[in-house]
Design brief:
alpha+beta, 3 domains, six-stranded antiparallel beta sheet, 6 strands, 17% strand, binds zinc ion
Length: 248
């Protein structure tokens, strides 16, 4: 049986599915990756996602590692833009120390895995609009953990999760750390962090308010299973119930 090519897609890091050539560990298209140490390391000493344990992929074109499961991104000391790092280190630290994860780089290079390489976590605001059609765009926003390792200088951008702060499905936009690690459109320098935070809180409050207003229009009846009736109240002034549950 033919060996599988050890190469990866240049733009996404997805492992190649083609068989390797007869005198190589790579297929014809990935032959140029043969000497790439990062790609060879994927076989011998892969890094693992600190959040879900998956092997991280290396993305040659972007010079970063990413998790194919949660879309988290790992940048080492040399790969990260110094200005981006400065911004990260200026963010507010996440308080819950119990939730700290280990540095993917250090925990690979060492057998001593006793929490010595815990990342310091920072809360990073992100927000961006995606044009869905000519007249319609959708704004996604949230706050995610960014971890920094003081030992080796690696930085881990945790995956944003399935849904944003407003409950919208982030779906295929989930890879934004990788599209623009440090891009000012998505999460920027510190002054932008404050604006993104205010916008997020404003939108979340507006959504809660809208939901409250909807609830106020609904019948107050609660059945024996604790389920609330989802019919509208009757039009009558001061009415708290729907036509079915109104007091006779
Ligand atoms: Zn290949
Ligand atoms: Zn992951
Ligand atoms: Zn480290
Ligand atoms: Zn009712």
């Amino acid at each position: 049986m033919a060996k599988k090519c050890l190469g990866v897609r240049e733009d996404t890091g997805d492992p190649c599915k083609r068989p390797a050539g007869s005198r190589s560990d790579f297929c014809f298209a990935h032959r140029p990756q043969e000497g790439n140490e990062k790609i060879l390391n994927l076989q011998h000493d892969p890094y693992h996602c600190p959040d879900d344990g998956q092997k991280l992929w290396y993305v040659p074109r972007l010079k970063l590692h990413r998790c194919g499961m949660c879309d988290g991104v790992l940048l080492n000391e040399k790969e990260i833009d110094p200005l981006v790092l400065e911004s990260v280190l200026g963010l507010s630290k996440v308080a819950e120390e119990g939730l700290a994860v280990e540095c993917p780089t250090c925990s690979t290079d060492s057998d001593l895995s006793d929490g010595k390489f815990a990342l310091s976590n920072f809360a990073m605001e992100w927000g961006f609009a995606v044009q869905k059609s000519k007249y319609h765009s959708v704004y996604y926003c949230g706050v995610s953990n960014v971890g920094h390792c003081k030992v080796c200088g690696s930085t881990w951008f945790a995956g944003p999760g399935e849904r944003d702060a407003l409950g919208k499905n982030v779906g295929k936009e989930r890879g934004f750390w990788r599209v623009q690690p440090g891009g000012s459109k998505i999460w920027g320098p510190l002054d932008m962090q404050q604006r993104l935070r205010e916008e997020r809180l404003r939108l979340v409050a507006r959504k809660t308010e809208k939901r409250e207003r909807m609830r106020e229009k609904l019948c107050q009846h609660v059945d024996s299973n604790g389920e609330r009736c989802n019919r509208r109240k009757t039009q009558k002034e001061g009415s708290e119930y729907c036509f079915k549950h109104r007091p006779k």
